[in-house]
Design brief:
Pfam families: MiaE_2. The structure is a single chain. By secondary structure, the protein is mainly alpha-helical. The protein has a single domain, classed as Up-down Bundle (Ferritin), CATH 1.20.1260.10. Helices cover 68% and strands 3% of the residues. α5 packs antiparallel against α7. The longest helix has 27 residues.
Length: 237
């Protein structure tokens, strides 16, 4: 569905699922030689956060209620801060952030379009669900990159201020109970596109059976965390 441009990667790398937020301490799964090179990792991670900032900015511009604008602005500000901190790390390494992000602009913009809803609440839910899943996934990837990865993990684990979005969604469903089933179905539909982005972030090659088995526990954890996010809003995944 989405094309990815990959760069040459170092010879050895291990991808580990790190324990954070909604992931259990017992989960430690390694992907052998599947993590992309560090430039790909940083470019994708930086552009994803910029995309969430842009989507939330569009919501702010079209939302009439001042209180709603303020709530959305907190989540937008958190995404922008994460983007800026990853960009600062890229520059610190002597690289050009624009050059690293550019290969992923088209596929990640397509992903944002595919997950934008017809109603503001659908788009809010899309940001909450997809950003949560991909923050988890890129946090898992970060274990492959030593100190650079550890710094990215700290950035991704910082407060995302998306609880304000959950509150707005809950308020909207209170005013219009029919939204509940619609948004629940929308939340479930988001999973497929989001997992495609996660799989596309890995080193590009045809996976063998052993590698598929290594990946399965990580994606199981991503889906479990997604179910908990949905449950916290009152949906079933």
């Amino acid at each position: 569905m989405f094309g990815w441009i990959k760069r040459r990667r170092p010879a050895e790398r291990t991808l580990r699922l790190r324990s954070r937020g909604e992931f259990g301490d017992a989960t430690r799964v390694a992907f052998e030689a599947l993590a992309p090179d560090v430039d790909t990792f940083l470019g994708q991670a930086a552009y994803l956060q910029l995309g969430y900032f842009e989507t939330l900015g569009e919501l702010i511009a079209t939302t009439p209620e001042l209180a709603h604008k303020e709530a959305l602005s907190r989540a937008a500000g958190a995404a922008l801060t994460k983007h800026q901190e990853i960009v600062a790390l890229i520059r610190e390494r002597g690289d050009d952030p624009t050059a690293l992000m550019l290969p992923f602009r088209e596929p990640l913009d397509a992903f944002r379009v595919a997950t934008r809803g017809r109603r503001p609440q659908e788009t809010m839910l899309a940001v909450h669900i997809t950003a949560g899943m991909l923050d988890d996934f890129y946090d898992a990837l970060s274990g492959s990159y030593g100190e650079i990865g550890a710094r990215v993990a700290r950035i991704l684990q910082s407060d995302d201020d998306r609880q304000a979005i959950v509150t707005l969604i809950a308020q909207a469903m209170t005013l219009d109970p029919e939204l509940h089933s619609l948004l629940a179905m929308w939340g479930r539909r988001l999973v497929g596109d989001t997992l495609l982005i996660a799989r596309g972030a890995l080193r590009e090659h045809i996976l063998d059976v052993a590698e598929e088995e290594q990946m399965e526990p990580v994606f199981t954890e991503l889906l479990a965390a997604h179910s908990r996010r949905m449950g916290a809003i009152g949906f079933t995944a």
